[in-house]
Amino acid sequence: MTSTVQSFDVAIAMLRLGLFWLAVVLAVVFTIDWLVRTRRISPFSPIARFFRSAVDPLLVPIERRVVRVGGLPSSAPWWALVVVVVGGILLLELVGYVRGMTVELMSATAAGPTGIGRVLLQWTFLLLEVALIVRVIASWVNVSRFSRWVRWSFWLTEWMLRPLRRIIPPVAMFDLSPLIAWVLLSYILEPFVLSLLGR
């Protein structure tokens, strides 16, 4: 078990270092591209020609989104850098989370079938709680329930929210059923089910 944990720790350290240097290199590249786009570097220079032919085509999807929301095309390199940094942070968090889950599963395996069942139940409740959060956020930002990004959360939670909606009416146009479902899952159902397995 310690060798697996050490392998994860080494991989996370290497990934962190690699992502840091990638962000540094891309910060330099995107800064030069911004200088070219804002004509602080002559558009006829070899550097400008290289960036227009090699870097700008890679930024086209981000540039389209920036323009679509009313931004300037020249700010696309900065938004690309934000995407890289946030993506790197999320990747590191995901790898750290997988490490934690692996350690938890290995400990549960050592505890036998009860430990494995306990971990699987905790993961099931966690998945339902995350689905509730995704669903609430999707309703705040007006994402369609049929969007491929949030459809899974509706599929996982509708079975418990539909009966709650029949009992609990909306309060001032706010649907309280996700909050009630969260409280029931986190503070009543999960502790009760896990207590049946024993501490």
What are the SSEs and their pairings?
Layout: H1 2-37, H2 46-54, H3 60-68, H4 76-110, H5 113-140, H6 151-167, H7 177-197
Helix pairs in contact: 1-2, 1-4, 3-4, 4-5, 5-6, 5-7, 6-7
Structure description:
By secondary structure, the protein is mostly helical. It has two domains: 1-110; 112-199, no CATH class. Helix content is 78%, strand content 0%. It has helices at residues 2-37, 46-54, 60-68, 76-110, 113-140, 151-167, 177-197. Helix 1 packs antiparallel against helix 4 (76-110), helix 3 crosses helix 4 and helix 5 packs across helix 6. The longest helix has 36 residues, at 2-37. The protein is flat, with a radius of gyration of 24 Å. The two termini are 22 Å apart. The mean pLDDT is 88.
According to DSSP, the number of beta strands is: 0
Structural class: mainly alpha
Helical residues, percent: over 70%
SSE order: HHHHHHH
Shape: flat
Q: Compute the CA-based radius of gyration.
A: 24 Å
Produce a short descriptive summary.
By secondary structure, this protein is mainly alpha-helical. About 80% of the residues lie in helices and about 0% in strands. It has helices at about 1-35, 45-55, 60-70, 75-110, 115-140, 150-165, 175-195.
Question: What descriptors fit this protein?
Answer:
single chain, 199 residues, mainly alpha, 2 domains, 7 helices, flat
